[in-house]
């Protein structure tokens, strides 16, 4: 009926449900489960089998892929990752996201901008989502180290993947997927030229990592250090809006 409030799938009633498991993790989880069952049912080695079975459940949980309700707003920049805001700093964007990449397509302009760093533990959902809707203009993979992702220098020294997106009005956002101590693979779901919607899945990082978001010039963060983010739902900032935030942890 007109005016009826619906859930994120267009139904009248909302209910909790088990989150889907992303295909990237199903094979790993099934292999781990099969190995644990071999130890339990064939060799009867419970000391090994039960811990492996618990690890299998953990693998499935790690690759969970819940649905998200994306905020509707022309200037909203949403979080690309689940996790904790570990740093907010004014920095120069990475060189890989600036200038001409050889195709004639310009990247982010030089000059300091606000960078929001979101740390993902192994308990967070690791599916990353687009902070804005638009065209993927650039995707640059950089090999590197596997230091703790919560260190500031991880932005420049760890294995990482830069993604540059541009809205229809020319506003560009850059963000970087950064591997951590345990993470050993960054998996992209998109490529340059793809058109994606805000909150759409764009990739994942296996096992504990970080995502840096570079806000447009003249835009301040609407979140604070220590705040919990939900990918595709939490609004990080509004394009062109500047404000001073203060908060108290409880």
UniProtKB/TrEMBL annotation:
The chain crosses the membrane at residues 30-63. GO terms for cellular component: plasma membrane. GO terms for biological process: phosphatidylethanolamine biosynthetic process. The keyword Nucleotide-binding does not apply. Pathway: Phospholipid metabolism; phosphatidylethanolamine biosynthesis; phosphatidylethanolamine from CDP-diacylglycerol: step 2/2. It catalyses: a 1,2-diacyl-sn-glycero-3-phospho-L-serine + H(+) = a 1,2-diacyl-sn-glycero-3-phosphoethanolamine + CO2. Binds 1 pyruvoyl group covalently per subunit. The active site is at 209 (schiff-base intermediate with substrate). The record marks 208-209 as: Cleavage (non-hydrolytic). It comes from the Bacteria. Its EC number is 4.1.1.65. Its cofactor is pyruvate. It is found in: Cell membrane. Keywords: Cell membrane, Decarboxylase, Lipid biosynthesis, Lipid metabolism, Lyase, Membrane, Phospholipid biosynthesis, Phospholipid metabolism, Pyruvate, Transmembrane, Transmembrane helix, Zymogen. Is synthesized initially as an inactive proenzyme. Formation of the active enzyme involves a self-maturation process in which the active site pyruvoyl group is generated from an internal serine residue via an autocatalytic post-translational modification. Two non-identical subunits are generated from the proenzyme in this reaction, and the pyruvate is formed at the N-terminus of the alpha chain, which is derived from the carboxyl end of the proenzyme. The keyword Membrane applies. The modification Pyruvic acid (Ser) is found at residue 209. GO terms for molecular function: phosphatidylserine decarboxylase activity. Its main location: membrane. Belongs to the phosphatidylserine decarboxylase family. PSD-A subfamily. Heterodimer of a large membrane-associated beta subunit and a small pyruvoyl-containing alpha subunit. Catalyzes the formation of phosphatidylethanolamine (PtdEtn) from phosphatidylserine (PtdSer). PANTHER family: ARCHAETIDYLSERINE DECARBOXYLASE PROENZYME-RELATED. This is Phosphatidylserine decarboxylase proenzyme. The gene is psd.
